[in-house]
Design brief:
Pathway: Porphyrin-containing compound metabolism; protoporphyrin-IX biosynthesis; coproporphyrinogen-III from 5-aminolevulinate: step 2/4. By secondary structure, the protein is an alpha+beta fold. The protein has helices spanning about 5-15, 25-30, 65-70, 75-90, 160-180, 180-195, and strands at about 100-105, 110-115, 125-130. The protein has 6 helices and 3 strands; from the N terminus they run H-H-H-H-E-E-E-H-H.
Amino acid sequence: RGNLNTRLQKLDELQEFSAIILAAAGLQRMGWQNRVGQILHPEECMYAVGQGALGVEVRAKDQDILDLVGVLHDPETLLRCIAERSFLRHLEGGCSVPVAVHTTIKDGQLYLTGGVWSLNGAETMQDTMQTTIHVPVQHEDGPEDDPQLVGITARNIPRQPQLAAENLGISLATLLLNKGAKNILDVARQLNEAH
């Protein structure tokens, strides 16, 4: 924990660390690209749900503020976050269980890879699913627009791609649960609660 200076100092001065995992973007912003020893690709290391996405918390009924911040939505990021968050929600996951994801949008397809792990890493379960999704252009609210999916309000993004993203997350979570992911997650929760 701590800022980049503190983290790198610990790596350099303490014998207990051989490496540290940091966001390459942060090191690049500081001009410390030479400190990057290896880039971890999604095949090697997925990320936490919503990692790197920025959000603005707004009161659900404050339409003026919702309209104001609505123009900030990046449609691809929004759809990826909806898929990731619905995956985690359907697994009944949270910050105390090892769940990771990777999403991409390519050629009208939203790909979601998700996985669960035991705390010691001995058991793992992961899979990938995809759905057709057309990256939307922002539009004006329509009568059928639902203001929220998995805690995300995006009235200026068409509802259909949002629903497709949500259903993708639910489908992948259901697939993993049917393969036994619930047992892995239950044990992880119990072990975390014991500590």
